[in-house]
Amino acid sequence: MIQFNVSDTFNRFLPADENPSNSRRQVMEACYSFVKPLKPSKPELIHVSDEMATAIGLNLKDTKSEAFLDIFSGTKVLDNTNPYAMCYGGHQFGQWAGQLGDGRAINLFEVLHNKQRWALQLKGAGPTPYSRSADGFAVLRSSIREHLCSEAMHHLNVPSTRSLSLMLSGDQVLRDMLYNGNAAYEKGAIVCRVAPTFIRFGNFQIFASRQDVIRLKQLADYTIQHFFPAINVEGKARYIAFFEAVLELTFKMVLNWQRVGFVHGVMNTDNMSILGLTIDYGPYGWLEGYDKNWTPNTTDRQQRRYRFGNQPGIALWNLYQLANALYPLVEDAKPFENALEKYQDEFLKAYMKMMSDKLGLKNANEKLILELENVLMSTETDMTIFFRLLSKLKMNSNKEEAFEMLEPAFYDFKQMTVQVKVGWKDWLDKYLLRLNEDNWLDEDRSRAMCALNPKYVLRNYMAQMAIDEANEGRYALIDEIYQLLKYPYDEQPENEKWFARRPEWARHKVGCSMLSCSS
Ligand code: AMP
Ligand code: MG
After folding, report:
1. Mean pLDDT per 10-residue segment, the chain (519 residues)
2. Which domain holds residue 425?
3. What pTM was estimated for this model as a whole?
4. Is any atom of ligand 1 closer than 6 Å to the C-beta of 135?
5. 186: Cβ below 6 Å to ligand 1?
6. What is the DSSP string of 463-511?
7. What residues are labeled active site?
8. 214 and 194 share a domain?
């Protein structure tokens, strides 16, 4: 039997819903409802993150055991544990949506291993009191996307929830993938997500919206005590310090998204982790052609609220909502306003510093960066390939050589207009001048740049290839991609085929450039 060092806190120290039935309803004065996963018909393990397994104290043999299959498919509940679904609310696409909650996530238990707390949560293991009109299940395609991307983000040094395992449930799930009246059955799947805690901005918002200051305070005190131990002030200052800490973590998360070209796709406040972790992998995507206006989410195609270039601003908007939710604990808006104002000033500075670091420059140069964004947008340019190739540039090259070296990053090199070429060469001229001023050894600059500019990311079409194969019962590509993305900053010559522009077949393919919230 596999052993866990179970150490539950959320469902021990916070108020539970007194109604034990698994019926859909508004849940008042409680942080969660007890609920058991539904037994899947024919669970089958597809993939395990060996690293995550080790992190929670399991070995390879454990992950192949029947007990592992039983627990992480939701077939059996581990003895002396009490699974539950969390109650939270949220702003969806800018509108207050009321109670949402874990509609298809069931928290199993918390584990303490090597002094690190991990909460284990099944996604897609059946309905909960928060399922509203939906079924509580998840399909294979979105589960593969979540499993691979959570682990890939972690290895890119982008704060993220993790994923332990990916299972088939053996049940069929009905989905209208593009919300266009073409519902079809798909394979059901269950992912076990892992994070120190899954608390979101929305967990605080729901109590503030109901003027339930008692529960709001309990949740804030619990969160600070367990996840922000460095906060040692008391009274109202404690909640301000908490807010400032969340702001800082959120800020860092979004800065990292901009660094690697990740577009979350649904930055609703219920999808914002209180620990600043990337959470809820739905219609996310990776920038291939650098475009600040791009969003993979077809549901957001009109407004483009959650487009790449808007992510820092939306994070700030979400932090305003969190400030509103915490306000009753402080009853003074000023400290929140001060923190939020600081975000605006500092984010721009931090962004310029991050871009300068990506460029291997010793000092931030706003003008050069803004000009770069313009040339990047002037012709379809692959973000990942561009920055990685730039790291190989020699200080004594000229602009012609530099431009030629960058050719693999351009989607349509042959059709490029003279004007675009001139724009690029002008920019490269200025950039080379800066490199010469800095006079940093090519080798050292290249090393520093390669630590920030990944060679491999989970390109949208790669996940889709893994999905297409998995739908036919072949799972090898899932592990191949998982292994590749464990070392995204390494050269990995044997994997050069993944350092390539998006193939043309994927340009308009559903799942590659177009994704909806249906999952
Ligand atoms: P999302 O857009 O995935 O963040 O989901 C928004 C809300 O809808 C959350 O409360 C989810 O738990 C819930 N939800 C999404 N899909 C399902 C589903 N298939 N069954 C039940 N609840 C769901
Ligand atoms: Mg969500």
Report:
1. 95 98 98 98 98 97 98 98 98 98 98 98 98 97 98 98 98 92 95 98 99 98 98 98 98 98 98 98 96 94 96 98 98 98 95 98 94 97 98 97 98 95 98 97 98 98 97 98 98 98 91 86
2. 361-439
3. 0.98
4. yes
5. no
6. HHHHHHHHHTT--HHHHHHHHHTTSTTS--GGGGGGSSPPPGGGTT-BT
7. 270
8. no
